[in-house]
Protein 1
Amino acid sequence: MSKTTDERGRIYLPKDVRERFGDQYRIVELPSHVALFPVDEDPLDGLRAAVGDAFTETEADELKSDAREAISQEAQAEVDNRSQNTEE
């Protein structure tokens, strides 16, 4: 499918494309071209669809809490590592 932009740089997607993939897209710039990737209205539903049942029983708040804890542990490990390197 080939489309051109209008005078304001907009691209109009055909109705059948919007019905199939939705109205929100992420634009990704690659070295040789750009690509449009549909964005789910509910990103967690999209993630669950992509990874199967890995997060079926997990709530968004629990996922955020787990991610924050992992980041905190990673940051503390880096601080500890730098402290050890400074002492040597």
Protein 2
Amino acid sequence: MAHYRGSESKREQFRRYLEKAGVLDSLTNVLVALYEETEKPTNALDFVKQHLGVAGPESGETETLRQEVADLRGKCEKLTEENKELRSRLLQYEPTATEGGPE
């Protein structure tokens, strides 16, 4: 009987761990969403994976994409500054409408 109580205690600890980590809520939400689907998907496991985010990109791929985004943001900032500089230089050579230049 002591063995049964020991394993029950471990089960209860594990259940509390899953509850604290939010796993039970996530699984419950996905299963409820699957239950409420009017047209059940042909592959329920794919449905669960998709709604849990398992089918997302790998961590290495994510890091590569983050680096690419950072690089592109830097490039965008550089091009924006260059655009501002070129516009200000262009305004020096364009006649304004009050100077009577060609329209």
